[in-house]
């Protein structure tokens, strides 16, 4: 079973690298999907560059969402911030409910075309899983552990940094993982407002009715999502082990 | 020495502890016993200011606890809770080093102290220091919890149901170890329990609490011989009283000169155990031997009857 999972991982990685570095290999497969002699391989830019732009966009927006989500989660679980919990929940939930396309439509008039509106949409969209998981992670730290920390004479900050956050880390990372994967897919719509990314390939295919382009863009995004999800899961299990929980 | 002076604590309109005064002599064990909701844990937590008293004052060695910042106060007082609250992401050694690290001890001093404590609690430093709490048995976790509380050599140890999660056999051993340790280190211990048996076994004095009030504060023998009417009487349990009274005295104090047949019993066991032996063997008397094997007389059933009747 383990062995099979390893093979699947390498196969996915191999396929991704081949699609990015040697796309011409796939000409025979994609050719039948095109009509009227349209090019089967995306030719309006380097797929590798677009992928790197896409990843940078997702990484930056996830980082910002993570900082906001964790700081908010920590704040509302402190005695001083407890009364802001319902308000923060509402804001974060609106961020998730509001469709990213609508956010784009509202953000473009305010900040113009390009990366900025996309970042706003992705940060808002990715906030919820991180915020909620930070809350869950902090709340599931056993009461006895917290009481011991207080009883030993730890200050609130010390308790947060050396006990609560390390113990909540696996759950926070699970939220981050979810957020990253959601945004990998969502980031494709950024191309509608001229943010560089893999959405360009898909949109180019859609406007010229070229299924081969759509397929290329879609498969690359999907493979990225699967591989990154897997890699973050690996880190998460490491954190869980360090948090002293016996995971199978 | 702890002096609790007219302390009350209110949660909303409810008094968890009301106008309670109590003093604990240095180097003794006081057990706070009562049912859940009696306010015993609240009282304990007011000593290290995890809960602030609403009224009254608490003095430790003559100093009002309110004059010391809470965190600093707590670093100087050992604290053991039910479930131990070991930090699951830290090794045993790091758990024990919690307070020394908070006090910024240098690494070598901390390490020496950790190894000393591991040895004291019968944990092999090479084997256990680098383990994580979930890799330990319940009894080992409990010992690490106490070791952690004693790491910075506090003169006062607060314990809230420290043996509550242990099975009976390990619990008896842990209680015995605590007594030995306390005699050796001379620390003052305030221990909360709901178990009268435990309160009698461990306490130099027992404070019986109910609904936030102190009903009786006396030595185990006094509580058994003359329980305050009402709640204390019920808690002591009339049927159990003679046995509990016998359990307070060692055979050595009740042995009389003379001969008896059969396998001798140790002079260090309690009269209760002696009674059990007598009953089991169907004997009127048994010889008593000191630890070195020398005979110091005999213990008789009639002597035990006299001892137990005194109480009733």
Q: Which assembly state applies to the chains in this document?
A: heterodimer
Largest sheet of chain A: none
Secondary-structure element string of chain A:
HHHHHHHHHH
Largest sheet of chain B: 6 strands, mixed
Percentage of residues in helical conformation of chain A: over 70%
The DSSP helix count of chain B reads: 14
Distance between the termini of chain A: 14 Å
Strand order of the largest sheet of chain B: 6-7-8-3-9-10
Listing every helix as H and every strand as E from the N terminus to the C terminus, the arrangement of chain B reads EEEHEEHEHHHHHEHEHEEHHHEHEEH
And the CATH topology of chain A? MetI-like fold
Q: How many DSSP-defined strands of chain B?
A: 13
| N-to-C span of chain B | 34 Å
Judged by helices, strands and strand pairing, the structural class of chain B is alpha/beta
Which band does the percent of strand residues of chain A land in? under 5%
CATH class of chain A: Mainly Alpha
Helical fraction of chain B: 25-40%
Number of continuous helical runs of chain A: 10
Summarize the structure in words.
The complex is a heterodimer of chains A (248) and B (312). Chain A has 248 residues and is mostly helical. Helix content of chain A is 75%, strand content 0%. The model of chain A has no long low-confidence stretch (mean pLDDT 89). By secondary structure, chain B is an alpha/beta fold. Chain B is 39% helix and 24% strand. In chain B, helix 13 links the parallel strand 11 and strand 12. In chain B, helix 5 packs across helix 7. The model of chain B has no long low-confidence stretch (mean pLDDT 90).
Q: What's the layout of helices and strands?
A:
The complex is a heterodimer of chains A (248) and B (312).
Chain A: H1 2-21, H2 27-30, H3 47-77, H4 85-97, H5 100-111, H6 115-139, H7 143-151, H8 156-186, H9 199-207, H10 211-242
Chain B: E1 2-11, E2 14-24, E3 29-33, H1 40-47, E4 55-60, E5 63-64, H2 70-75, E6 78-81, H3 92-96, H4 98-102, H5 107-120, H6 125-128, H7 138-150, E7 156-160, H8 168-185, E8 188-193, H9 196-202, E9 205-210, E10 213-218, H10 220-225, H11 231-236, H12 241-247, E11 265-266, H13 271-281, E12 285-289, E13 295-300, H14 301-311
Parallel strand pairs in B: 3-8, 3-9, 6-7, 7-8, 11-12
Antiparallel strand pairs in B: 1-2, 1-4, 4-5, 9-10, 12-13
Helix pairs in contact in B: 5-7, 12-14
């Amino acid at each position: 079973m383990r062995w099979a999972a390893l093979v699947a991982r390498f196969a996915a990685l191999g396929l991704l690298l081949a699609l990015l570095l040697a796309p011409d290999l796939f000409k025979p497969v994609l050719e039948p999907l095109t009509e009227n002699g349209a090019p089967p391989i995306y030719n309006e830019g380097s797929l590798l560059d677009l992928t790197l732009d896409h990843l940078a966009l997702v990484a930056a927006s996830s980082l910002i969402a993570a900082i906001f989500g964790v700081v908010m989660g920590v704040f509302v679980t402190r005695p001083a911030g407890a009364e802001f919990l319902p308000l923060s929940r509402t804001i974060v939930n609106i961020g998730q409910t509001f469709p990213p396309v609508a956010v784009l439509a509202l953000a473009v008039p305010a900040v113009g075309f390009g990366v900025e509106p996309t970042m706003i949409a992705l940060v808002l969209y990715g906030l919820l899983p991180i915020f909620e998981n930070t809350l869950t992670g902090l709340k599931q730290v056993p009461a006895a552990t917290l009481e011991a920390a207080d009883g030993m004479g730890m200050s609130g900050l010390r308790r947060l940094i050396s006990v609560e956050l390390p113990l909540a880390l696996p759950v926070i990372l699970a939220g981050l993982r979810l957020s990253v994967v959601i945004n990998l897919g969502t980031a494709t719509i950024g191309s509608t407002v001229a943010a560089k990314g893999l959405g360009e390939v898909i949109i180019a295919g859609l406007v010229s009715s070229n299924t081969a382009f759509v397929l290329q863009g879609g498969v690359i995004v999907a493979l990225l999502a699967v591989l990154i999800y897997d890699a973050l899961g690996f880190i998460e299990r490491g954190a869980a082990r360090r948090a002293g929980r016996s995971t199978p | 020495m702890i002096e609790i002076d007219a302390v009350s604590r209110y949660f909303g309109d409810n008094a968890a502890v009301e106008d309670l005064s109590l003093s604990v002599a240095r180097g003794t064990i006081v057990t706070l016993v009562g049912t859940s909701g009696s306010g015993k844990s609240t009282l304990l937590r007011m000593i290290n200011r995890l809960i602030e008293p609403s009224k009254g004052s608490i003095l430790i060695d003559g100093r009002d606890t309110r004059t010391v910042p809470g965190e600093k106060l707590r670093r100087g007082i050992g604290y053991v809770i039910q479930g131990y609250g070991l930090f699951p992401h830290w090794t045993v050694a790091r758990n024990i080093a919690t307070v020394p690290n908070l006090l910024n001890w240098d690494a070598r001093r901390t390490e020496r102290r950790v190894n000393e404590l591991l040895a004291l609690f019968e944990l092999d430093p090479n084997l256990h220091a680098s383990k994580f709490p979930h890799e330990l048995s319940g009894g080992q976790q409990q010992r690490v919890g106490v070791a952690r509380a004693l790491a910075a050599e506090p003169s006062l140890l607060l314990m809230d149901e420290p043996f509550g999660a242990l099975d009976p056999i390990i619990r008896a051993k842990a209680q015995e170890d605590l007594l030995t340790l306390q005699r050796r280190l001379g620390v003052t211990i305030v221990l909360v329990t709901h178990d009268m048996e435990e309160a009698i076994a461990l306490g130099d004095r027992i404070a019986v609490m109910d609904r936030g009030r102190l009903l009786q504060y006396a030595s185990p023998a006094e509580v058994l011989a003359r329980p305050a009417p009402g709640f204390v009487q019920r808690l002591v349990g009339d049927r159990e009283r003679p046995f509990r009274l016998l359990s307070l005295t060692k055979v050595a104090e009740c042995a009389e000169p003379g001969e008896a047949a059969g396998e001798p019993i140790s002079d260090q066991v309690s009269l209760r155990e002696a009674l059990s032996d007598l009953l089991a063997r169907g004997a009127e008397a048994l010889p008593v031997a000191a630890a070195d094997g020398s005979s110091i007389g005999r213990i008789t059933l009639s002597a035990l009857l006299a001892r137990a009747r005194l109480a009733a």
